[in-house]
Design a protein that fits this description.
242 residues
Length: 242
């Protein structure tokens, strides 16, 4: 059974549908990219997985059970979440920013320190950065810290919502490579929302194309690139040629 399943899931903002009748499963321990134009429902879908939005209708199954919104934080602790801008706490050191979930869940200091060392090594952040503050780091370095924080508890699911959109091409490429190295070392189910087709093609095993709240194609990267299912997918690919 897949860790993430949607069964006829819809969500409305007032009378406007954000996602409509979505039924799918995300392949475990693979990277799935969700692409499509702005307003297609990509971020709403991600927020539904994370329990930030309770859908208007349908069933969301995560880790084998329907989401329990009365105890949603228990599920969220098993889901890493990284967004554009990182959301780091400016008054806390890099060490404390990364360590916060470990402290909340009463992990031992030794385990937290060992995990932080591993994660910072994955994303090429030097140990000296532990005592720095976010304002002392570049945008790319802050994004790396955000990834480390999301990965501290070694969650089986990792969600990224346009996490690399604001980075310059060189930094973005470096972090892409680091994410792939981390995935090779610690395979997990990753769902990536992006408007960048090059990013989706580089990182993803599978690609979901959304339009107006509906899934127009969901297939392997090769299949969706070689055989667009309809004119919408074909035009999107052509307008953003890799």
């Amino acid at each position: 059974m897949s860790l993430i399943q949607f069964k006829n899931v819809s969500h409305y903002y007032g009378k406007e549908p954000a996602v409509k009748g979505l039924t799918f499963e995300i392949e475990d321990q693979k990277i799935t990219a969700i692409i499509g134009k702005s307003g297609s429902g990509k971020s709403t879908l991600l927020q539904i997985i994370n329990g930030l939005i309770k859908p208007t209708s349908g069933q969301v199954i995560v880790f084998g059970d329907s989401l329990d919104y009365s105890d949603i934080n228990k599920t969220r602790l098993k889901i890493g979440y990284s967004v554009q801008g990182t959301g780091l706490f400016p008054h806390m050191t890099i060490y404390n920013n990364i360590a916060i979930l470990g402290k909340i869940t009463n992990r031992s200091k030794h385990d937290i320190e060992r995990r932080i060392d591993t994660l910072m090594s994955f994303v090429n952040l030097p140990p000296s950065f532990k005592t720095k503050y976010p304002y002392q780091l570049s945008g790319g370095e802050q994004q790396r810290v955000g990834i480390c924080r999301a990965m501290l508890l070694n969650p089986p699911v990792f969600l990224l919502d346009e996490a690399f959109a604001a980075l310059d091409p060189e930094t973005k490429n470096e972090i892409h490579n680091e994410l792939l190295q981390m995935q090779a070392a610690e395979p997990r189910t990753i769902v990536l929302v992006t408007h960048d087709l090059n990013e989706a093609v580089k990182l993803a095993d599978n690609i979901m194309f959304m339009e107006a709240g509906e899934i127009k194609q969901f297939a392997s990267k090769k299949e969706i690139m070689d055989n667009p299912a309809n004119i919408s997918v074909k035009d999107y690919m052509k307008s953003r040629e890799v």
